[in-house]
Please model this.
Amino acid sequence: MKNIAKLKTTLKGFTSTINRYPITILLFFLSAVFTSYNINTHDIDNISEILFALALGAAIYLVLQMMYERFCLGKRTRLVFGGIAILGAILYYLIVEFGVDNFSGEHALRTVVLLFILLVAFIWIPVIKSKYDFSESFMAVFKAFFIVLLYAGVLFLGISLIFMATDMLIIDVDSKAYSHVGNFIAYVYAPIHLLSLIPIYCGTSDKINEESDFKDSKDNKDSKDNKDYIKPSKFLEGLVSYIIIPITAIFTIILLLYIIMNITGDFWKDNLMEPLLVTYSITVIIVYLLASVIDNKVTDYFRKIFPKVLIPVVLFQTISSILKIGELGITSGRYYVIMFGVFATVSAIIFSIRPNHKSNIIAPILIALSLISILPPVDAFTISKRNQIERLTNVLEKNNMLINDKIVPNADISEEDRNIIISSVRYLGSMDYLKDVSWLQDYSTSYDFEKTFGFPQYGYSIKEPDIWRFYLTDRTPIDVSDYDFIVEVDLYSEGKENSFEIIPLGDSGYYIDLEPKDGIGDLIIRDNRQNEIIRYSFSGIFEHFTDRDTDRYSEISMNEAEFTAENDNAALGIVVKTVYLEIGEKDDFQNINAYVMVKLK
Model:
């Protein structure tokens, strides 16, 4: 009975979640439907745009629902919020589908940043002017995420094992079934379960129970006591206090020692340090937010000491990233690294000044900086695009490579200028900006870097070999009446595996031999004492075809395919079936498939 009661409680919680976030759940369900259809048919070319639009609408409603619960009253307001979320999803789709030539990495990244802003707002809005802290709301979402991740992972693994057993023991299971299961777990089960673990914070909407259609009186009572949602489990508390914080402390000591030892040398040029310092800063801020909800001596010392340590680390990281702009220019990635450095510095200062106070203020700071990064004209993409085009233009003009809005190839430039051209062109190409620069449009269609700029992009030149290939017309009759023997041979030049073996000419005691040199070499007829009877050099055949003025790949007639030689001892005829010649910078390759005809005198 207890298990049945627990199941009913769980199902009731899921039902309440659907009532609480109906538009979000609906949009996630539509995402699952579109994805499932695309798994089966692969017919949806713009699946990324559709999924981004649905995700954006779902996130907008999450934020608006938090605003409703915290500040608003009435069903009408909630209906308006639902309409805004749906309209936002539709407008986004129409803009990226019809207002954008090509949905590129820039548009995807802008959308991801916008979703991140909505996520921060979702965590922050419920605790505005509240007795709860941003760190407590963060803890609730953090716990919910990893609980759902564990449950979803076990659920997917269990269903996959059932499918595997069924496939092996009973009937074949379509491999797409695994993708469908993962799809519905990710888009339907996981969002419902995660949102069911988000507490209902006290707000204006809680004052009038009858106008709330997503909670009954018991739900309202439970919503006022969110300790179970906010308080970390014993496992998480021990993990943070006695494992994560000590490891972070040891790593901090190592990091500070490295900075002190190399502050006048490699630190400012070490490209590996930048991602390491950013990761360290993110880790410290997350651990600080988790530690703010845990009350013991270890977390208390962490809150008091680590923000002060974080300040010099993020300052050095930010300065190092700014200095690298002179070497590599501004990219969207470096823009975000610097922007995060600014946020981390401000956050560390706030944490240092007010170690035991609420951390709510960091959320609007993060939202503001994130908005700046995606809103023109100071966004990451506009600034990086302008900077990279200016760098490239300056270097090309400096080396007389940009004349009358056209690029003039020039291999005689410095290594530094080459690297600037290469890095800028690569970045512009990766962000799909090449088409926006008039004098780069030819390159944007051919992508022939060496032809455009006069030197190879990857430090060496790849020259295509010269190739000739000719073949005898199918079913061409061959007159063998003047010869005693006919043999088919397939020969390769030196350096390749050659399967040629001595070929005896019946019981005559004569045989065909090959003497490799300068390619395939010479064909020789010998007697039983190994005396040479007649010889023919294949080099003459290859020279004949390379001297042709016609196409390098074509059919040949019988007259063009036949080569003969004769002396007092024998007559030799060679009819080419196929001939292939490849001449590269370092190596040549020859292959000939032919009939060899011999007449002994």
